[in-house]
Design a protein that fits this description.
The complex is a heterodimer of chains A (160) and B (559). With 160 residues, chain A is α+β, with helices and mostly antiparallel strands. Chain A is 28% helix and 42% strand. In chain A, the strands form 2 sheets. In chain A, strands 5, 6, 7, 8 and 9 form a 5-stranded antiparallel beta sheet that branches. In chain A, strands 2-3-1-4 form a 4-stranded antiparallel beta sheet, covered by helices on one side. Chain A is elongated and about 55 Å long. The longest helix of chain B has 15 residues. Helices cover 35% and strands 17% of the residues of chain B. Classes of the chains: A alpha+beta (160), B alpha/beta (559).
C-alpha cells in the first residue's frame, strides 16, 4: 500500500490527537510516524502523519479529518513539493578499533556524536527522511543497538 | 451576579428555547436536577437512559428541533451510547449532558466514573469535557450550533460535578465562531448548471432521495423539481414521506427490501440524481452492479458522503433546499416519455404484494389496515427487522417527518421510546410504533412513561414468536437452522399493558384486526398495545440478498 503524508492543522487542545488518531485506528490503519508540535500561533498545533493505505480509504479519512470540529486544515503532502526533516538517534556497536570509521561515516552525513562508550557510539542525525534511511543502512553492518526517530515534519515549498 | 454551574446549564437551555428535556437522575447530576426543579420546560423522566435518548431522538425527528438529554456519569452515560450512535448514524441533532466525577477525581477509577468523551468520540459529531466554568455557556452555545447545523448529529457535554457546583456569572454568547467548522450551504453555481445540463439531456433519469431532504426541509423544493422535470423518484428508508408514495411518479423505497421497480429503474438509469442520500450498502447491494452506465449527480451537505461508495460525476456540496431552489430556477424538462412509460409498466407488472390469508393474520395486512384506518395521517415509528420493512413497504407516506426509524444503526428497541418523543413533539398526531415481539421487549419499561404523561401512543406488535428477520436469513441462507431466534416464551403483552395501566388487546383473527385498530384509535389518553398474533414464518419480499446484485432479487417464497 502507498505511503501518504498528511499535514493537519488543529486547535491546540486536549483530545484532538485522540480524535485524529481514532479515524485511522477505526479503519485498522497503523500510523507509521506522527509528529505533533506547536506552531507560531499559541492556539494552533500541527501534525504530520505518515500512513500507508488504500488511496480511496485515505481520501475518505482526509474528508473525515476535515469534518472534525477541531481540525482547521488538512493538506496532503504525498505528491507535493515539500521541505521535510526528521531526526534520528542511534546507538551503534563500536569496539575501539571501529570508532574511527564510524565517526568518518558520520561526518559525511553531518551526524553529531552524542556519546562514546567503550562498546558503542551514539549518533544524532537530522535531515531528509530518505537520507536518514541511507545512513541507517550504512551503519547496520556494525550492529545497531538502539534506534529512534522523531517522525518527519513536512512543510509545503513556497517556490516550486 | 454569580450563579452556580448547574444554573448556567438551565439558563442556557432557556436561551435555546428548549421545550422538553429527557433524562434520568444520578449522583453527580443532582446539582443539575436541583436547578431543573423550577425550569419552565418539561422534563420527561425515562425508566432507562436508553429510553431517554431515543425519545429525544424521536422528538427531534418529528419536530426538526434539537433533542436534549441529561444523564448521570458511569452507567448513566454508557446506557446512552446506543442512542447516541443511533442519532449519529441518522444525522439527528441532539445535545446530551452527562455528569462526570469532580475534576480532581477524574482518572482515579472513582465511583461511577467512565471516560465519556473517550467512549463517545467516534459516535458524536463533537464532544466536550468541561474543564473550566468560564467555558460552560460558550460550550452549550457551540453544542446547539454544531448539533443542528451542517449535517446534524449528537453532541455530548460531559460536566464534572464540581463545575456544576462552582459559581460564575451567566452570560450567554450571541454568536458562535469556530474556525474549523463552517458548513457550506450554497451549492457551487457552476456545478448546479452542469447538473441542469445533464438532467436536460438525460434519457433515463431517476431521483434517489434520502433523509437529507427531510433534514434540510427541502421536500417542497423536491416536489417542485419532480413536477418540473417529470422524473420518477425513489426514496431511501429514511426518505419516506419526502414525496407522496401514492403519486404515479413515486417508485417508493429502493434497496434490499425496496420495490422491484425502484431497483430496476435505478439499475437501468442513465442518470441518477442523488439528493441527501449516502449510498448505504442496504441501498446499493453489490456496489459494482448497483448502476450500469448511469452518470451520478450528488447533492449533499456532507463532502465526506460524496464519492465514498459510488463515484460521482457532478458533486454539489450544499444544503439540499438551497441547491434545489437554484436548480428549479434554471431546469428544463428532459424528454423522457418512453422511459416513464417503461417504468409505469414495470410498476404495473411487479407490484409490491404478499399472499393474503383468511385463516391467519398476515403482518402486511395489519400494516395496510393501519394505513387505511388512519388515512395515512399517522406518524409511524418502527423497531428493527421485519416489522420495520413491512411498515416501510405497506404504509404509504405522504409527508416528511411521519416515518421515524433507526436506519443506519438498526437499533432494536428504538421505536417505542422514539414514539414517546414524537408524540410529545406532535400532540396533534396519532403516533404508532410498528413493533415486533422481539424489539418491543428491549425498551418496554418506557410504557409507564407514556402512561404517566397520558400519551396515546399505539404499539402495534406484529407478534410471530420469532426474531423474524434473523429467522428469515436463517431460512434462506443458513439451512433453516433457527438457532436461538424462536421467542415463543413471551409475556402476554395485553395483560402487560394492563399491568402498566395502559390498554391491551390481543388479536388472533383477521376479522378482529379492524375493530381492534378502531378501538385503539378511539383511546385518546393512554397508550395502547395491540398484540397481533400473525403468521409465524412470513418473509419480507422482495429481497436483494446482502452483497448481491438486483438480478438475484428474491421476489416471493420459493415453493
Amino acid at each position: 500500500m502507498k505511503q501518504h503524508i498528511i499535514s493537519v492543522t488543529v486547535e491546540n487542545k486536549f483530545g484532538v490527537l485522540a480524535r485524529v488518531a481514532g479515524l485511522f485506528s477505526a479503519r485498522g490503519y497503523n500510523i507509521d510516524s506522527l509528529a505533533v508540535s506547536n506552531t507560531c500561533m499559541d492556539d494552533v498545533s500541527i501534525m504530520t502523519i505518515v500512513v500507508r493505505g488504500d488511496d480511496r480509504v485515505i481520501e475518505q479519512v482526509k474528508k473525515q479529518l476535515n469534518k472534525l470540529i477541531d481540525v482547521i486544515k488538512v493538506s496532503d503532502h504525498t505528491n507535493s513539493p515539500v521541505i521535510e526533516r526528521e531526526f534520528v538517534l542511534m546507538r551503534v556497536n563500536a569496539a575501539p578499533d571501529k570508532r574511527a570509521e564510524i565517526i568518518k561515516l558520520g561526518e559525511v552525513y553531518n551526524a553529531n556524536i552524542a556519546e562514546i562508550s567503550p562498546r558503542s557510539i551514539t549518533l544524532g542525525v537530522k535531515g531528509e527522511p530518505q537520507r536518514l534511511d541511507e545512513f541507517i543502512e550504512l551503519l547496520r553492518p556494525y550492529g545497531i543497538k538502539e534506534l529512534m526517530r522523531t517522525g518527519r515534519i513536512s512543510m509545503l515549498k513556497e517556490i516550486i | 451576579m454569580k450563579v452556580k454551574g448547574s444554573d448556567i446549564i438551565i439558563e442556557s437551555l432557556k436561551k435555546e428555547n428548549v421545550e422538553v428535556m429527557f433524562g434520568y437522575p444520578g449522583g453527580v447530576v443532582i446539582p443539575i436536577f436541583h436547578s431543573l426543579f423550577n425550569a419552565p420546560f418539561k422534563f420527561i423522566l425515562s425508566r432507562h437512559e436508553q429510553g431517554a435518548v431515543h425519545a429525544a431522538d424521536g422528538y427531534a425527528r418529528a419536530s426538526g428541533k434539537t433533542g436534549v438529554v441529561l444523564a448521570t456519569s458511569g452507567p448513566g452515560a454508557t446506557n446512552l451510547v446506543t442512542g447516541i450512535a443511533t442519532a449519529y448514524m441518522d444525522s439527528v441533532p441532539l445535545v446530551v449532558f452527562t455528569g462526570q466525577v469532580s475534576r480532581d477525581m477524574i482518572g482515579n477509577d472513582a465511583f461511577q466514573e467512565v471516560d465519556v468523551t473517550g467512549i463517545t468520540r467516534p459516535i458524536t459529531k463533537h464532544n466536550y469535557l468541561v474543564q473550566d466554568i468560564k467555558d460552560l455557556s460558550r460550550i452549550i452555545k457551540e453544542a446547539f450550533h454544531i448539533a443542528s447545523t451542517g449535517r446534524p448529529g449528537p453532541v455530548v457535554i460531559d460536566v464534572p460535578v464540581d463545575i456544576s457546583n462552582s459559581t460564575y456569572k451567566f452570560e450567554y454568547p450571541d454568536t458562535v465562531s469556530i474556525r474549523g467548522y463552517k458548513p457550506n450551504y450554497e451549492g457551487h453555481p457552476g456545478q448546479i448548471k452542469k447538473a441542469a445540463k445533464l438532467i436536460e439531456s438525460a434519457k433515463r433519469p431517476v431521483i434517489y432521495a434520502g433523509g437529507g431532504v427531510i433534514i434540510s426541509d427541502a421536500s417542497k423544493e423536491l416536489r417542485e423539481f419532480v413536477k418540473k422535470t417529470g422524473i420518477p423518484i425513489t426514496t431511501t428508508l429514511l426518505g419516506l414521506g419526502i414525496y407522496p408514495e401514492t403519486d404515479p411518479l413515486s417508485l417508493e423505497m429502493l434497496g434490499m427490501h425496496g420495490t422491484y421497480y425502484a431497483n430496476h429503474a435505478v439499475h437501468n438509469s442513465d442518470l441518477l440524481i442523488a439528493v441527501g442520500a449516502r449510498f448505504d450498502d442496504r441501498v446499493t447491494g453489490k456496489i459494482a452492479t448497483f448502476i450500469r452506465e448511469a452518470k451520478v449527480i450528488h447533492i449533499d451537505i456532507d463532502p465526506a458522503s460524496v464519492s465514498k461508495n459510488v463515484m460521482v460525476d457532478v458533486p454539489i456540496v450544499g444544503d439540499c433546499k438551497r441547491v434545489l431552489q437554484e436548480l428549479n430556477k434554471i431546469i428544463e424538462p428532459p424528454k423522457i416519455d418512453e422511459w416513464v412509460d417503461e417504468i409505469m409498466k414495470l410498476k404495473n407488472d411487479n407490484p409490491l404484494t404478499y399472499e393474503d390469508s383468511e385463516s391467519v393474520i398476515k403482518p402486511q395486512f395489519v400494516v395496510e389496515e393501519l394505513y387505511r384506518l388512519t388515512k395515512g395521517e399517522a406518524i409511524i415509528t418502527t423497531e428493527v427487522g421485519q416489522n420495520q420493512m413491512w411498515a416501510a413497504q405497506f404504509y404509504k407516506y405522504s409527508e416528511p417527518r411521519t416515518f421515524i426509524s433507526s436506519g443506519g444503526l438498526g437499533t432494536m428497541g428504538y421505536g417505542f421510546p422514539a414514539a414517546i418523543g414524537a408524540q410529545l413533539a406532535r400532540p396533534d398526531k396519532r403516533v404508532i410504533d410498528i413493533a415486533g415481539d422481539g424489539s418491543i421487549q428491549m425498551n418496554i419499561q418506557e410504557l409507564i412513561v407514556a402512561v404517566q404523561h397520558r400519551l396515546p401512543v399505539i404499539i402495534a406488535i406484529l407478534n410471530n414468536g420469532f426474531l423474524g428477520m434473523v429467522r428469515q436469513w436463517q431460512q434462506l441462507f443458513y439451512d433453516k437452522r433457527y438457532s436461538h431466534t424462536c421467542i415463543k416464551s413471551a409475556p402476554d403483552f395485553a395483560r402487560l399493558a394492563e399491568a402498566y395501566g395502559a390498554v391491551g388487546i390481543r388479536i388472533d383473527k383477521k376479522t378482529d384486526v379492524e375493530p381492534a385498530i378502531k378501538k385503539a384509535l378511539s383511546v385518546k389518553d393512554t397508550p395502547i398495545i395491540l398484540d397481533f398474533h400473525v403468521a409465524k414464518e412470513e418473509n419480507v419480499y422482495p429481497m436483494v440478498p446482502a452483497g448481491k446484485s438486483i438480478k438475484e432479487t428474491i421476489m416471493r417464497e420459493l415453493a
